[in-house]
Amino acid sequence: MIPITKVVIPEAAHELVGEVLRSGSLAQGAMVERFEAACAAMAGTDHAIAVGNGTVAIVAMLHAAGIGPGDEVITTPATFAATLNAILEVGATAVFGDIDDHFNLDPQSLPELLTERTAAVLPVHLYGQCADIEGIAAAVADHTNSIFEDAAQAHGATRNGKEAGGLGTAGTFSFYATKNLFCGEGGCITTNDDTLAARLRVLRNQGMRNRYEYLEPGYNWRLTDLAAAVAVPQFETLPALLASRQANADFYATHLSEFSQLRLPFAAAGNVHAWHQYTIELREQEGTISRDSLVAALNDAGVGAAVYYPRPVYAYDCYFDHPRVRVSNAPRAEQATASVFSIPIHQHLQKEELQRVVDVIGELM
Length: 365
Ligand SMILES: *Cc1c(COP(=O)(O)O)cnc(C)c1O
Description:
Elements: H1 11-23, H2 30-43, E1 47-51, H3 54-64, E2 72-75, H4 81-89, E3 93-96, E4 118-122, H5 133-140, E5 148-150, E6 158-159, E7 162-163, E8 170-174, E9 187-191, H6 194-204, E10 208-210, E11 213-214, H7 225-231, H8 238-256, E12 262-263, E13 271-272, E14 278-282, H9 291-300, H10 317-320, E15 325-326, H11 331-339, E16 340-343, H12 351-364
Parallel strand pairs: 2-3, 2-4, 3-15, 5-8
Antiparallel strand pairs: 1-9, 6-7, 6-13, 8-9, 10-11, 12-14, 14-16
Helix pairs in contact: 1-7, 2-7, 3-4, 8-12
The site of pyridoxal-5'-phosphate has 14 residues, from helix 3 and helix 4.
């Protein structure tokens, strides 16, 4: 089997975890500080605040920015439930736009969604490619300047030379076990806003500025030094990871372009793609294989293909019927979620494996 994700823990992480274990200080401490410095460098921001996971990072970011009940947050239907769950968790209303040809929030879908309650936009850099942030900002400028990035899949991606996580008001990353950088469970918020960063540090730690100096009711959103130690060594090799995933994407672009049923992904002008996923849109035609049959056949042939995501996130009863979910027309998201599939792109693939993926797809076309 050629797996769609492969978790390889670098030797340096074993050593750093050992260091933390021997220190006896397992909770948030010096290793989390190193993790935060690396996150800020990755996003090109003044601040990074580590938290327990990528979902809580979005909750914390919205909460610290004062987003709550009565506020509307516009987001994309082509995302993982975490994005929507975080909006609902802070008590805000989720409003859905449609997506563009890169599967990201389409600025053109935004004007009709704006109301006097529009408080923020939360685009997702899906599959590792930055959304059209300037287009989004321009489309909503009369209503809000708050643009929050869900960069959970986009470590090291850039747009017009600026890093994901540093493109808007604030951004969030996930370090879940299968993300490009990982530590099992982990997350961070990146921002240049000093006030927002200071409030996040307080909220994360029970609302305390110093020990027992409570500024407001808070939470325990902390990351552990133990988890941070797994992630810290990976930032150094991020450029190599990105280069290797780009080379794999280039290989697919060269060898799959002959199949007219496949619409291959590419980086939009000005974007460096992090290639968290290599996601193809199947143009179903009369007499050709369906998306679901293709994914099943690929897996039968030993190619770990998967669907991210099978439906727009609002299209489940628990969200569709939710009083704080506002669904409008998103034909492009409906169509894309019915026709996309992802194939292995990770940096541990061997040339023969890439060739095998191409050959198996060719046999099924
Ligand atoms: C993984 C992911 C999250 C959530 O991150 P966790 O660390 O799993 O909580 C949020 N948004 C997107 C787009 C993701 O892919």
